[in-house]
Every structure is written in C-alpha cells, then in structure tokens.
Amino acid sequence: MKAAVLWNAGDTAVDVIGDVALVGLGPNEVRVRLAASGLCQTDISAMAGTMPTATPAVLGHEGAGVIVSVGSEVKTLSIGDHVILSYAPPCGQCRFCLRNQANLCVGVFDPFDIPAKFVIRGQPGTGLAGLGTWAQEVVVPQQAAVAIPQDIPLDIAALLGCAVVTGVGAAINTASIRPGDAVAVIGCGGIGLSIIQGARVAGAGRIIGVDPAAERRAAALRLGATDTVDPVEFVTLLDQVNGGDGADHVFEAAGRGGTIRDAFDATRKGGEIIVVGAGSMDDEVSFSAFELFYYEKTLKGCFYGSSDARTDFDRLLELWRTHQLDLEGLVSDRLSIDDINYGLERMREVVGVRQLVVYDL
User: Is residue 80 within 8 Å of residue 39, measured between CB atoms?
Assistant: First the structure.
C-alpha cells in the first residue's frame, strides 16, 4: 500500500512510497482503511527530532476510516464500522482510567515503546504515536478505534483524533472557565482554533487569539474570538483586559518555552495557564520562587485535552451537530497523499490554518 515514510529524524520531507505492508492482525486488533488524516505540527516536530520517534516511521496521528478486519477477540467493533483513531486510548482498568484521567493511561499505548506495525521495504517500521495515519491502512488495538455514526463525514471526523479533542478539551476539561471570563490563546493553528471554540462553548466573554499569521487571526475571528492580535501587540491589548490585570486563562498552543513564559506573564493574579502545545524535552522555562508563591497562578499541563476518547468524541460530535462547533472551518485545504510535503511546507511557513490529507476508500 501507499504511505508517507520518515526514514530518519532530521529529514525535511517524507517519502511517499507504494510498497509498505502491515504486520499481521492480532486477536485484539482491528484493521482500518483510512479515509482522511490531518497534518499537525506534532508531525513536523517528529520529523525534526524534537518528538522522539523510532524510524523508519509512518507519520500521522489523527485519522478516521472504515474497519476492514477484526481480530478473533474483538467484541465491540465490526467490519464496516466507521471509526476515529485515538493515540491516547484508555485500557479502562488502570489507576489513571479509574481516576477519570483516561488520557494519561499507558495500558494500551506506551509512547516510549511503540511496536512495529509496518513493514517498510523489508524493515520493521513504527507508526507515529502508535498509529501512522499517513498510510492507506493501519492495524491498531481495538481500544484505539472509536466507532461513530456512519453519517459523519470522515474528513471532518479525522480532526477529532487530535486537534479538536485536544483544543476543545483543553477549554472544557482542563481549564476552569466560568461564564464571562477573559481568555487568551497563543497560537491559532488547528489546536488553537479548537481552544477558541471550546472557550466559546464554555461561556468565556472576551477571547483573544494571538498569532503572527494574518490568515490564522482571520480564522480565529470566524470561529469565535472577540479579538485577535499579533504577538508583538499582545502586551498592549492586555492593558484593556480585567483593568490591566491580564486574562483569567491563557492557553499556550505553540509548544515553546518562550511563549509559555509569555502566557504566564499575560495571566492575572490567581489565573491559570494551560500548556497545550507539544514542546521539546530540552526547552526549559524559568519562574522565580517568589512569583510562583506571590501571584498564586496555576500552571497546568494538558495532554490530549484531558479527554476520554470513549465518551468525548461523542460529546464533540454532538456539539458539531448542534452547530456549536465549526469543524469545517478548521480546514484550509484538502490534499492528496502525494501532496503531503507541500502541506508540511505550508505549515512550516505559518501560512495555512489547517490541511487535510484525503485518501480514497
């Protein structure tokens, strides 16, 4: 089959080849023919080596498709089911799952021990985050495939696997937004735009989108931001928020130490900073002991929108059905698998809002 392969960390392009095979189907696994997969900044981070990835690897970690085979022990999924793939599937039995922190479960996928599920020109190959959705088909554990109604467009459903569940989840699960609160979102790509929509759903009053790209700022306004601003003008705008005290909640969706520090400084006393962007392991942030004590700000990490794929995909689809989430508005372009490198280059140039790679069923 055709797939987009990263041969080595540091490569600036993937290799779209047509001779990739899948490892055999296990008893608790399903085989899914992909209909669509998103392009995400995390894929670029994996290419750069800032997100550890065993190579060769098929990239892509958000996708949707149709089940074509099921293992002998699979009881809840069937051939023909439409599914969204999740790279944070819960096992349902560990302490994290039982503490309502299913997104932190490693009982199904351990991000530092991803099994090889592809054969790439004779070599064992992994899929990014255990998935590898830049391929025409994947084999995944049954917990990683969440069935959805068949009337949901699969290109729209694909976005729920990462961008939407992470961004909207950050606003409605991780943060403690109250009606009328002031929110700022630093970074208005697919995840940042989803945070903006989630903040609107949560009842935020003023929602500020911060991004250097004019196209992304325009998309932020369409999707619920009340204000947008270039990063260099952000401090000036904050003088108008809460009497100059800063925003109640600031979301960092860029994954950089410098912007995490900016988010901390933009937050009022007693407010909260939600770090949603996936940064590198060696990018550190400094705070003084005094400011952590005196300003009583809450600094939170946010992995996968603090979401449980088993229930939150349904919640998000219901918000889409009732026109409270605009998923189509996240998409700036639809590309074929052969155009993946073009889409990645657009993302590196901070031009596009969101791209989708669409496969034929």
Answer: no
Burial track 113-143 (b if 16+ CB lie within 10 A, e otherwise): ebeebbebeeeebbbbbbbbbbbbbbbbbbb
Give the type of residue at 174. Answer: T
What average pLDDT does this structure show over 252-261? 92
Residue 322 lies in a domain: no
Residue with tokens 């088993």: 310
Helices (H) and strands (E) in the chain, counts: 11, 19
> Do both 44 and 157 map to the same domain?
yes
Cis peptide before 115 (omega within 30 of 0): no
The pLDDT tens digits of the residues spanning 288-307 come to: 999 999 999 999 999 999 99
**How far lies 115's CA from each of 92, 110, 118, 238, in Å?**
21, 9, 9, 47
Asked whether residue 232 falls in the same domain as residue 351, the answer is: no
Q: What is the pTM of this model?
A: 0.93
Question: What's the one-letter identity of residue 241?
Answer: V
Does 185 lie in the same domain as 157? no
Q: What is the CATH number of the domain that holds 114?
A: 3.90.180.10
Three-state secondary-structure class, residue 55: coil
Q: Give residue 151's domain range.
A: 3-161+327-358
Q: Quick one: angle between helices 190-202 and 214-222, nearest 10?
A: 30
Beta bridge partners of 300: 274
What's the total number of domains in the chain?
A: 2
Shared domain for 176 and 287, answered yes or no, is yes
pLDDT tens digit sequence for 324-361: 999 988 887 888 899 899 888 888 776 554 545 555 42
pLDDT digits (tens, 9 = 90+) for 24-33: 899 999 999 9
Is the sign of the CA dihedral 338, 341, 343, 344 positive or negative? positive
| Confidence (pLDDT) at 356 | 53
Q: Look at residue 350 in the predicted model and tell me its pLDDT.
A: 61
Instruction: Could you list the beta-strand ranges (E) of 187-332.
Output: 207-210, 227-229, 247-252, 267-275, 298-301
Higher-scoring residue by pLDDT: 53, 119? 119
- The alpha helices in 223-351, defined as continuous H runs, are 234-238, 257-265, 289-294, 309-321, 340-348
